[in-house]
Write a structure and sequence with these properties.
The complex is a heterodimer.
Chain A lengths: L1 E6 L2 H8 L9 E4 L6 E4 L1 H5 L12 H6 L3 E4 L2 H15 L6 E5 L2 E5 L10 H16 L3 E6 L2 H13 L6 E3 L3 H9 L11 H9 L5 H5 L3 H19 L17 E3 L2 E6 L2 H21 L2 E12 L16 E12 L2 H15 L6 E9 L2 E2 L14 H17 L34 E3 L1
Parallel strand pairs in A: 2-4, 7-8
Antiparallel strand pairs in A: 1-6, 1-7, 2-3, 5-6, 9-13, 10-13, 11-12, 11-13, 11-14
Helix pairs in contact in A: 4-5, 11-12
Chain B lengths: L48 H5 L6 E6 L14 E5 L9 E6 L2 E10 L2 E5 L8 E4 L5 E11 L10
Antiparallel strand pairs in B: 1-2, 2-7, 3-4, 3-7, 4-5, 5-6
Classes of the chains: A alpha+beta, B mainly beta.
Chain lengths: 427, 156
């Protein structure tokens, strides 16, 4: 049996866990530059605030209702997440961290400690509630897909008390019969409409579909899903995830920018971040992609016509894999210059590092120089210094040196657990 | 030059978490010929205050105290409290909790259906919490108090 533990409205719940007056009030959390709503409490959902809606569009609702607004405080959420995951490892040995607020558990073999799944689920819920003050829901099922489905049911039906168990045929049948196929884990909008056209609307219908047909319509991944629905595990617990295959950083400007110099500065900043990530996971990258685009939805002020749009990207294959910021920067800047077109208001420049290989893999080319070892060493020295003295203390000269950029988030909560200046005070 | 053997009693030697990154004192004696230091085999690592005060880092929070209501429990304005949320709350525990949104540090006393939050400074009145009416949320139990010593006042 597998279990899936998932925090309810994680970001909102974390904000509440340090500020209990928010209990019962609508809470929303905004994306990186306060652009969109990325998390909503149940009360905010009831007001009709949709996921991903632009923050300014909620203005009217905010005037009518007392809505608590927070910029996303990833330091706080990340720290709470790691506490959550380590609490889970106190219950079972094998925990797969699936996302910031979700984890799969392998729950076989703990019968002597927890005779029932209900008891285990309740114990996890109580411990997390006591130690982190956030609510979690737990689904149990014979496969990961069914555990995920059970978790969803636990959230939808408050009368279950946050724990849903699908451990026998009857319970599974009942759950699948009422479950829309589009809500299944791994079924996107495209597959959902395709399945609907063929008369398949519930998870039970998909489970009973013939194998050949499923493989034809949804490829082998769809077939795996169907097997999982039948109770045959195809997705195993992934306890030590592989390092990422690509790294992408592309935060929006928060405003529009027409000139190359400012965009170049932003690109350097993004690249510096991406290279930090690259070095943290001990990888080298072989390919750099730079992309640049305007806001697709922007209207020309005055006439309401869509503003002229531009999108371009450029991919460069490096002569040898590297993780040196300075080296990658020369390629990235050259790519940017080649795709930059004058006369547009740009919304975003982004960088993607791909073809990642482990750092100890250094293939020397025949006709090209290998990477300069000194650059690679310099990178780790810079990271260590910045770790000690603060981010961007040592930076590329072309990196932005404007304290107002990137835009400071306006509604940031204190970093209660990671900064001495921000810890709670008690009377 | 070693004149007396200064043996370290076994109970004074501690082992700490190997995942910890405290620098290890390299105690290689410079005595090439002669009597080697008898302590050499016994020194393991330096002690770390964190191991003493914050054994459960995953469930602990730091909270700064303000106000003088808990002076009787050696909690002064500016003291840093180590608060462990995994420790069960019992009558008599010094806890950090929110009462109707106000974060406070008090002694927890259960009185039937209500809860009394006692101060340890007689100038402060106890707070009574009715679980049905008041919003009450416990952060955790205070397990350590970190304070600077009081400033020296010259006796008259």
């Amino acid at each position: 049996m597998y279990g899936l533990v998932d925090a309810n409205n994680f970001y909102c719940s974390v904000e509440r866990s340090f500020n209990p007056t928010l209990e019962g009030k609508p809470v929303i959390v905004l994306s990186n530059r306060d652009g969109n709503v990325v998390a909503r409490s149940n009360e905010a959902k009831e007001l009709g605030i949709k996921m991903g809606v632009a923050f300014f569009e909620t203005k009217e609702l905010r005037q009518q209702h007392d809505i608590a607004v927070f910029s996303s405080n990833y330091t706080l959420y990340g720290e709470t997440s790691s506490r959550l995951m380590s609490l889970l490892t106190q219950f079972v040995e094998d925990v797969e961290v699936y996302s910031i607020d979700e984890a799969f558990l392998q729950v076989d073999g703990y019968e002597s400690l927890y005779p029932t799944y209900q008891g285990l689920g309740q114990a996890i819920r109580d411990t997390v509630k006591q130690c982190l003050r956030i609510p979690v829901s737990i689904g149990f099922g014979p496969t990961k897909t069914l555990a995920k489905l059970a978790n969803r049911l636990a959230k939808q039906h408050p009368e279950l008390g946050g724990v849903c168990i699908l451990d026998n045929k009857g319970a599974v049948n009942e759950a699948l019969a009422g479950f829309p196929v589009g809500d299944l884990w791994g079924v996107g909008r495209r597959y959902a409409s395709k399945l609907k056209k063929n008369g398949i609307e519930t998870a039970a219908q998909l489970r009973d579909a013939p194998d050949d047909w499923v493989a034809q319509v949804m490829t082998v991944n769809g077939l795996r899903l169907v097997y999982e629905l039948r109770g045959v595990p195809c997705r195993m617990l992934d306890v030590s995830p592989l390092p990422k295959k690509t790294i992408c950083t592309a935060p929006g400007f928060g405003t529009v920018i027409p000139d190359l110099n400012t965009i170049n500065d932003a690109l350097t900043t993004h690249l510096a971040r991406a290279c930090e990530k690259l070095r943290r996971q001990r990888s080298l990258c072989g390919t750099v992609t730079v992309f640049l685009h305007t806001n697709r939805f922007r209207k020309t002020p005055g006439n309401g016509q869509p503003a002229k749009a531009y999108y371009n990207s450029r991919t460069v294959e490096l002569p040898h894999p590297t993780n040196s910021t300075a080296e990658l920067l020369t390629y990235a800047q050259e790519s940017l210059r080649s795709i930059f077109a004058f006369g547009y208001n740009y919304q975003k420049v982004g960088i993607i590092l791909s073809d990642l290989v482990p750092a100890d893999y250094r293939q020397k080319g025949v006709f090209v120089e290998g990477p300069d070892e000194r650059w690679i060493k310099l990178g780790s020295v810079v990271d260590r210094l910045n770790g000690r003295y603060g981010r961007d203390k040592l930076r590329m000269a072309s990196q932005q040196y404007n304290p107002d950029w990137p835009m400071k988030p306006q509604y940031l909560s204190p970093c209660y657990t990671t900064r001495w200046e921000d810890i709670l005070t008690a009377q | 030059m070693i004149e007396a053997i200064d043996a370290i009693p076994l109970e004074n030697i501690y082992r700490i978490d190997p995942s910890d990154r405290t620098p290890i004192p390299l105690y290689s004696s410079g005595v090439q010929a002669g009597f080697p230091s008898p302590a050499e085999n016994h020194i393991e690592r330096r002690l770390n205050l964190q191991d003493l005060c914050v054994p459960n880092i995953e469930t602990s929070y730091f909270v700064k105290a303000t106000g003088e209501s808990m002076i009787g429990d050696y909690i002064f304005p500016g003291s840093i409290l180590v608060v462990d949320s995994a420790v069960p709350v019992q009558t008599g525990s010094v806890i950090v909790a929110w009462v109707n949104g106000e974060c406070c540090v008090k002694r927890f006393v259960r009185q039937g259906k209500q809860i009394m939050l006692e101060s340890s400074n007689e100038r402060y009145l106890p707070i009574y919490v009715h679980l049905q009416q008041d919003q009450f949320l416990v952060l955790g139990v205070v397990t350590y108090v970190v304070s600077k010593p009081p400033r020296y006042v010259r006796p008259r």
